[in-house]
Amino acid sequence: MSSAMTSRAVALRYVGNLLAIVFCIYRTKGAGTTYGNLFVVTNLKVIGNHSDPSRLPGQVEFFLYTAAADGVQVTVTFRNATVQSLIILPGVKNMNQVSANPKLFSFEKDLARKSVYVFKGSGLFGLCVLIMQSYAEDSFETFLAIPVDGWGKLYYLVSLESRVSAQFVTGEHNSTLTVLLRFADRSMVFKYHGISYGTGSNLIVDLPPWRAFSLSNCDDNRLSSSFTGTYVRGTSPFGVISGNCLDGTINVLCDDPMLEREQKGRQSVLVEMLPPLEQYGREFIPVLITGRTSHDYFITVAGHDDVNVTFFNKEDERNDYYLKYRGDSLRITLKGGLGMLKSNKGVLVMYVMRSACFGSKAEVGGPSFCLIVPNELFYHTYTWSTKTSSLPLVVLSYICIVIRVSNIPQLYMDGEFFKADTTWNLVSGAPEWRAGHAMIEQGNHLMKHTSGSPFGLYLYGLGHYSSYMHPAGFITSSINAVCHTSPTVPGDLVDNDCDKRIDEEIEDNKECLFADDDDDGYIDEDLRDTPVGGASGETTAEIQIPGVVNGGWSVWTEWHCQDCLDTRVFRTRDCNNPSPLEGGRNCYGGRLEAKFGQCYTEITCPEDCPLYYWSSNCSKTCFNCMGDCRKNSGVCERCVSGFKSPQNSCTTACEEYEFGPNCEGDCMAKCDDDCFNRVTGECSDSWISFRTLVPALIPIIIVANACIFWGYHKQKQTLLPTGESKPSRSWTLYTAISSEKIREMLAPWKSLETPRVKPFEDMPPDTNLFSSRTTFSTTESQV
């Protein structure tokens, strides 16, 4: 390296130190991160469950977090009225949550001005918005809020096809917006104040301070078209929230991921807060959620004309694309793993997690939007908040880290170095980069790089057919606009040397062979700062207090299946080896871990059983339930008449003196005795005539039969002519039935007797009811 070049770098550094006290003169407006002291947000329209109008359409939660040791005082206002005032504190257990009334977001018109939530803080904090929706089935989505300092004047919108929606928000200044509409389907129009606006139309909106404007097609799904590439310009900085009120992706078959079906999969709200045009980048590593059958994809939107895009897919396979006009977009499917995307001009990249594949339960997750942060805007410190316990689904949360392989050893998370057993995946086209995933517990978290090296961090959660995903944060400085060089101050978050990178230099030895960190011929011309804690990564020695016992983890349980609807395997551990005592520290880390598996793929889950069948493989029934039973437990609301025990599938018949549904009827109260019928509760009196009639008919039937035979014999004797020979053989039937015999015959009916009916009670035991002798004769033919 020439001495002239070194002298120039030293002089530049000297001037920078002299001007540090007046740095605000050179600081680019909006230079900062997604941690700010003023946020203005609203929400996409939440579509409710039309089959159950009484059920609220959804819920909106705001999560606030900070790394400030003393905390931050935050005031929340809505429609100029203070909703809540709170102090947010750092730490894993300090969850700071504000709930919004879903009705405030749900019943606005598609195109209309609407109210906003304003969050003002005494220091820097972050804000994440969680949306829960109950349209047909519960789903959820999140987006990272961008502070007012990170807003711009130029944006391009992104969406999928159905029920598109964009929200424009203002801060303390009004802004006149010009929206140049662009639809994939040219028949698609928006109607505003009686005027139709289609592709190529300019919609002008005057938006006053602290307000929002909704540009949506949420209520009418007959016209479905993406508005990706729609251009929005404002007279002053404003924020944009873009996506779909309700949509999903085209399904692929689980057994053949390359084969798409005609219909869409599970749907959800899809939303992300967009960066302005000046934050569009040139290098990206689109993340890939591992373990899913469906091939996710990403959408790339050109911020300029004549954009060349190169994406390296599996095994460094290079794919080149060309976007002719600004606002043009392309969709690239992630088929073979992680890869680097590069462009010659600034582009916007949005990751789309597909709806779960069709035909198998072996896939978790669902449709979700996620902004892919340019590598140029990676930061070195992230704070975030994760809470999924309020969701109606079982959701496990994860992080995805994108980092240079040489910087992995200095990752620090929640007070200790990041665990080294994470699997780091190669990035095609960028061998110096890696991406790794790890499961995390709910709560507040902090991750940093102890030397100040930038890395990317994404948060995502997977549930059954639902998911969320968003970046943990990023730098919001301009890297895609006219640039003027400026003196460097470590950590100023400004592109001082106009090379489209932010704070990429490490302050090091000028004579060092590798002192030029970005290979541009200059040394320390755009310095990064060092996070609190020092560049060495050293930690403070732990002070031991007598009697205090810090908690320790037990060994992990074996991997096991948990929920039939979840194909993942789980394992757990407990903080009891030893348990914390006398104020000792709780165990650090998570109690639960999960990984992708093949649980329950060969059986029918209870939720898929037909009516009146339940349990795994539908092996149990509940036919005696009044209506279907719960598929996992067999419990039903009520039992049909004649049965009880709804908690046991109504398998118990009514007992003595019980009848009716759930056996709630009382026979004693109705009949003054036990019931004859357990279903209707019919009393025994109604059966007296039948039980007394049968014993009385038996002797009558016997006598009648004897008379018939006797009459037949007499008739045969009468028909014989005089002088004929007498019968050569006679058959004689003697019938004699005693009272004892009758009693034996009537024994089965004794149980049906009532006190008022006692047949044959006074008859002597040896009395014959009748005695008869009947002779039947036949004549043999004479030879």
UniProtKB/TrEMBL annotation:
The chain crosses the membrane at residues 693-712. Keywords: Membrane, Transmembrane, Transmembrane helix. The keyword Transmembrane applies. Residues 142-461 form the IgGFc-binding protein N-terminal domain. Residues 770-783 have a biased composition (Low complexity). It holds the Pfam family IgGFc_binding. Residues 757-783 are annotated as: Disordered. InterPro entries: IgGFc-bd_N (IPR035234), TSP1_rpt (IPR000884), TSP1_rpt_sf (IPR036383). PANTHER family: IGGFC-BINDING PROTEIN N-TERMINAL DOMAIN-CONTAINING PROTEIN, IGGFC_BINDING DOMAIN-CONTAINING PROTEIN. This is Uncharacterized protein LOC106067928 isoform X1.
